[in-house]
Amino acid sequence: MRSISLWKTNFLAPASAMPALLDDLDELALSVAVFEDEANELEETVRWRIDLTFDHEPALDKLEAGLQEIVGRHGFTLRLAALEPIPEADWLAVTAAAVKPLRLGRFFVHGAAARSEVPADAIGIEVEAGLAFGSGEHQTTQACLDAMEGLTGRRFARVLDLGTGSGILAIAAAHLWPEAVVTAVDNDPVAARVTAENALLNGVGGRITAGVSEGWRSDLVRLAAPYDLVLANILADPLIVMATDLAPNLASGGVVVLSGFIGRDLPRVLGAHEAQGLRELERVERDAWRALVLTTA
Ligand SMILES: C[S@@+](CC[C@H](N)C(=O)[O-])C[C@H]1O[C@@H](n2cnc3c(N)ncnc32)[C@H](O)[C@@H]1O
Questions:
Q1: For residue 63, which phi and psi values (nearest 5 degrees)?
Q2: Spacing, Cα 243 to ligand 1 middle (Å)
Q3: Residues tagged in the binding site annotation for S-adenosyl-L-methionine
Q4: 136 CA: nearest ligand 1 atom
Q5: Dihedral over Cα of 293, 133, 213, 28: its sign
Q6: Residue 281: count of CB within 10 angstroms of its CB
Q7: Which residues face 49 on adjacent strands?
Q8: Ligand 1: which of 107, 221, 233 to mutate, most ligand atoms within 8 Å of CB?
Q9: Residue nearest to atom 24 of ligand 1 (CA)
Q10: 186 lines ligand 1 (CB under 6 A)
Q11: Please, where in the chain does CATH 3.40.50.150 lie?
C-alpha cells in the first residue's frame, strides 16, 4: 500500500468570501473542503469552516503568511487551527472496506487493494464502500456514469454533483472534463467528508469542493451557480421537489443527469423538469432503474 503522510488544519471564513476564496486556495493545499461551521449555527451570519489537507508537513510560517495575504484580500482575519498530522489509522479506516473492482465503460472503480490493477485504457476511480453510498455497484450510479460518458463531446466548466455520496460521480466528472471545477455536496456530513478524502485519493482534490448541503439550500451550492452540468442521483420525490431550484441555476445550454428512480416514476420526474423548461436528451436503463439526461436548450 502507498504510504500516505497527510497534514490538516482549518480556519473560518464568512459566506461573503465564497466562492472566490476557494479559487485562491486551490494552489496552496492538496485539497480544500468546505463545511458549514456548526458551532456558529445560532448566529445570523453563516460562516464556513475551510479544511486544508497537505501531503507533507507545510512550514507553518510560510503557510500563515500565504493565508494572511489571501484572507486579507477577502477582508477578514485569519484564525488558523493547529496544524496536525492525520493519523494513519484514521486514513486507513476510510479505506478499510474493500470494493469489488468493477469495469464500467471507460471507468475502473476499485478499492485500495486493486489500485495496481487499473487497466491501461481505463480511468481508475478509487472509492471505498461502507461510509457513503457510491461503490459503483448500484445500477443508478452505473446509469449516471453511462450517461456521463455519452456527454464527453461537450465541454463543461462548472459541475455540481448533488447527493454525492462517496464522490464517485464528482471524481468521474473531474476526469472526463479536466478543465471543470466540481462542487460536490451531500446532506450527510459523513458523505461530504468521504468525498473530500476520495477526491484527494484520486488526485483531483484541487478541483472538487466537497461540502454539506440540503438540496440547493446552501451558499456553497448557490454561489458556484450557474452550472453547465448537474449530476443528481437521489430519489424521484426529492428530485421532483428540487426541479424548481435546478432550472434557474443552470447555465444556458446546461445539461442535467438525474437518477435514483425506477421506470414507473420516470414520467413524474420528467414532467416536473419539463414544467421548468428542460427537455429530454437521452434516457439510460439499468434493470428497473433509469437515468435521464436533460438540457435547457
Ligand atoms: C443514491 S446516493 C448517490 C451517491 C452517488 N452520487 C452515486 O451516484 O453513487 C444519494 C445520495 O444523496 C444524498 N441525499 C439525499 N437527499 C439529499 C438532499 N436533499 N440533499 C443533498 N443530498 C441528499 C444521500 O445522503 C446519498 O449520499
A1: -60, -45
A2: 15
A3: 141, 163, 186, 233
A4: 9
A5: negative
A6: 16
A7: 12, 35
A8: 233
A9: 163
A10: yes
A11: 133-295
Fold type of domain 1-86: Alpha-Beta Plaits (3.30.70)
| CATH number belonging to domain 133-295 | 3.40.50.150
Q: Using an 8 Å Cβ cutoff, are 191 and 213 in contact?
A: no
CA–CA gap between residue 137 and residue 135 (Å, rounded): 5
- Per-residue pLDDT of the chain (297 residues), as tens digits, is 344 567 889 999 887 887 788 878 877 887 777 766 655 544 545 577 888 888 788 999 999 999 999 999 999 999 999 999 876 645 444 444 456 799 999 999 998 889 999 999 999 999 975 677 888 888 999 999 999 999 999 999 999 999 999 999 999 999 999 999 999 999 998 899 899 999 999 999 999 999 999 999 999 999 999 999 999 999 899 999 999 999 999 999 999 999 999 999 999 999 999 999 999 999 999 988 999 999 997
What are the start and end residues of each CATH 3.30.70.120 domain in the chain? Answer: 1-86
Amino acid at 117: E
Q: Give yes or no for residue 129 CB within 6 A of ligand 1.
A: no
